[in-house]
Amino acid sequence: MGELIGLVAVAAPFLMVFGIVWIGSQKKLEEKRIEATAEMSSEKAAQYAAHTAELEQRVRVLERIVTDRGYDVATQIEALRDTREVEGSDSGVPLEIAKKEKA
Known about the structure:
Elements: H1 2-67, H2 73-88
Protein name: Phage shock protein B
Organism: Pontixanthobacter aquaemixtae
Transmembrane segments: 6-24
């Protein structure tokens, strides 16, 4: 029994140091995990905000088309389709090389 008490008395400081180091490393790991989650959340929020702004702009255009009586609705819709095709292509503005100017 006396040997066990001596062993515990010698091992206790080492176990305490090990426990303190382990708890400190777990705390740092949890802080990094929280920071990573916060960064991902802020990036997602920025993406959602950009997407929302784009959708709001599209709604404004559609509202303007519907409420303006002076414009031809079909012409406006076709113009939007043409714009979307240009935005979707790689070149931007189509070049009509086949049509040459006559001087």
